[in-house]
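Structure ticket #2291
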Amino acid sequence: MIQNKFRNGALTFSVVEQGEGTPVILLHGFPDHARTFRLQLPALAAAGYRAMAPTMRGYEPSSQPKDGDYRLERLAEDVLAFIEQSGRERVHLVGHDWGAVVSYWVAAMAPDRLLSLTTLAIPTPGRLVSHGLRALPQQILKSWYILFFQLPLVSDFVVEFRDWAFVEWLWRRWSPDWRLPEAEMQALKSSLRQPGVKRAALGYYRALLDRHSVREARATVRLLKKTIQVPTLALTGENDGCMDTRLHDILMKPADFPAGLEIMRVSGAGHFLQQERPELINQKLIEHFKASERRTL
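Resolution: structure written out below.
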């Protein structure tokens, strides 16, 4: 593995990459970091891909904007800059958690830059409120933390209290039948301890309900309701304690994915399925990439 850099304006993003060939950009979520894809990079490299896992906006001091802007539009602009610097016109895009949300945005806005889209744990968010929560109101209880993060002083304190015990608790709750190895949990905590990272990570959620961004938020929802003109694979863990796996059946409709949609529910896995079932996930990723490439020939 080698260390590289992506840039978007004044911001610099660390990238861990491995292999050569068609680029695969893998986007992490919360509370997580780029090492969440450490088990995917060598497998994708062995399959002939240049696997690239960047650190998302704000998750290191060099990528923290002075204006504290963590709106979805800015996150997606970062990814479009990553694609531009990947060395190829089109890439395979993979996103987990927040990385998945951003990936849907990129696929809707710039399908011509993608060979394929793969999302892990998160269904398409465009109709989540209007359809998903009505059909499955239990999800509101699972998403309580979004409102909690709107309390800056309280949530900032709680998240870091007692050596990030809250983060460990989220991992246990979201992947109830699996435990992140202790060495990896310590590496994650080290990432979160960097100056400004905690505020940035919580800033993603605060930007969702920022009253000054109402107009932009409405435009984003409209964009996310657009059809996805990219072959799409949606992976969901059957025991996900963060995002109810049944939402994929409610929200992911083939008509919204005319270039092709496959939904796969992964048994024995929760929210962090790429780490829980790496061999299966890697196999599905490679199969999806190869099939998507054949469709473009």
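Closing remark: DSSP finds 13 helices and eight strands in the chain.
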